[in-house]
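re: ur question from yesterday

yeah so i grabbed the chain u mentioned. its 169 aa long if i counted rite. heres the sequnce exactly as i have it in my notes:
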Amino acid sequence: MNKKIFALAALSILLGAGCGGKTSVAENTNVAPNANTNTVVENTNANTASSSTPATNANTNTVTNTNTKPSKPTTVTPAKTSFLVEVDDSGFYPASGTAKKGSTVTVTFKSRTSNVLYNGLNIRSNKYDVGYVKGGTSKSVTFPAEATITFSAFWSTGAYKSAWTLYVK
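ran it thru and got these structure tokens back, copy pasting raw so excuse formatting
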């Protein structure tokens, strides 16, 4: 019986003296770009036994996950807005459109087959000249939406007929 108590006491002294301390510390660091770094900080196993209580096992694991991936710059693709606008000698249909500032706008002007002078309509703004659009044909113009812009329709004689406005917000 004394030998069992002596063995338990010796075991307790050894465990208390640090023999059951840190058992492993592992570190995994990848130096490649865009790599994740996983670090296991500490794993502690402490086994204790006494004559009055059964043996206990306390495990403590601490894991740190550090993402070393550099952030990518955010790119914003501008919105694209398209309009199909019919035109005749009496007006544009629809009479206006709305686009978000910075978006890319494509406007297709389609001349109707009736109520259009035989030469068609000359469509232009202060920045863009679409040219003559004869009855039954269409022409497009693409531009960045920077500010509100108005396209006007004229006969070949230069007489003003109507206007279409793109409102930029």
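noticed a couple things. The longest helix spans residues 2-19. also Confidence is low (pLDDT under 50) at residues 19-46.
anyway ttyl
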